[in-house]
Amino acid sequence: MLSATTDNILHAPPQRPSGALAAYGDVIRSTETPRTIEYRLLARMSAMLERATAPSAGPAAMPTAIHENRMVWTAFAADLAEDGNAWDMTLRARLLSLARWVFAESDRVLREKKSPQALIDVNRAVMLGLQPATTAQPDPV
Questions:
Q1: Which of 9, 110, 116, 140 gives the lowest tally of CB atoms within 10 Å of its CB?
Q2: Tell me: the pLDDT tens digits for 119-138?
Q3: Residue 84 C-alpha from the chain's centroid
Q4: Is residue 38, in this structure, part of any structural domain at all?
Q5: What InterPro entries does the record tag this protein with (predicted)?
Q6: CA distance 109 to 111
């Protein structure tokens, strides 16, 4: 399992790509599956939200983390709302409902100074669903 705390690429704050970074993004999109990319995004957002709760985090850390997490969920919601989305309507509706909850909870975290732990937990739960199924290996005899 990808560890959001040990993968150095996940520690860099999300930034809008330009130049070489944009080209690298094209390579990632052509070599990784959409599920892998979504998994990595959620891992990165979870790590960012966790770092924003650290005592050493600056005053902009939480609003920035919340904003970036919302951007990811906005992209998910837009994709789910597309007519060409391959997921069945029931799953799409459930995920869109979850996105709506993420937006509302994000507001509560910022306005009421709540912990972002519920957002982190949701991101990680979705990450579990994005992991490829592993086949159980028999115990060696």
A1: 140
A2: 999 999 999 998 866 545 55
A3: 22
A4: yes
A5: FlaF (IPR010845)
A6: 6
